[in-house]
Design goal:
Blueprint: H1 10-27, H2 29-47, H3 52-82, H4 88-123
Helix pairs in contact: 1-2, 2-3, 3-4
The chain binds adenosine-5'-triphosphate (ATP).
Organism: Neobacillus bataviensis LMG 21833
Main location: membrane
Keywords: ATP-binding, Cell membrane, Kinase, Lipid biosynthesis, Lipid metabolism, Magnesium, Membrane, Metal-binding, Nucleotide-binding, Phospholipid biosynthesis, Phospholipid metabolism, Transferase, Transmembrane, Transmembrane helix
């Protein structure tokens, strides 16, 4: 097992990154949940014709959530690669990564409520 070639072109690095995203979408239940939630949120954003600034917050919320979830999956893989035995540090690493995802998820819910609640209230 030699070390991988470090001279990958920009294009092949990009394709590795895309295959990572595709793998996460295929293998991670949470990613599928984020994907469906994102479609709903984008649909609501179009329906309510949200402002440009609101779109920016929504796009950062969605993009950040996906990015963090992919990073969480990467950390889970590395931990599983290092040990399949119980180890307190393995638990800490996985729980810390999951905690980061949870913090961002809570933030996106607050952002979503701040943006959409006034539009929803106006409907009634
Ligand atoms: N090698 C390990 N040593 C100690 N604790 C572990 C180890 N692997 C997993 N855990 C702990 O077991 C629990 C479940 O871990 P698991 O790897 O199944 O991920 P998960 O949190 O269920 O995430 P997902 O459903 O996204 O895979 C977590 O609290 C994690 O910290």
């Amino acid at each position: 097992m030699g070390s991988p070639d470090k001279s990958n072109s920009f294009i092949s690095s990009l394709s590795f990154a895309f295959s990572g995203i595709a793998m996460a979408l295929k293998m991670e239940r949470n990613m599928r949940f984020h994907f469906i939630s994102s479609i709903i949120v984008v649909g609501m954003s179009c329906y309510f014709s949200i402002t440009k600034l609101e779109w920016l917050f929504i796009l950062f919320a969605i993009g950040g959530m996906f990015a963090l979830e992919v990073m969480n999956s990467a950390i889970e893989r590395v931990v599983d690669l290092v040990t399949s035995d119980y180890h307190p540090l393995a638990k800490q690493a996985k729980d810390l990564a999951a905690g980061a995802v949870l913090i961002y998820a809570a933030l996106t819910i607050v952002v979503g409520m701040i943006i959409f609640l006034p539009y929803v209230i106006k409907l009634f």
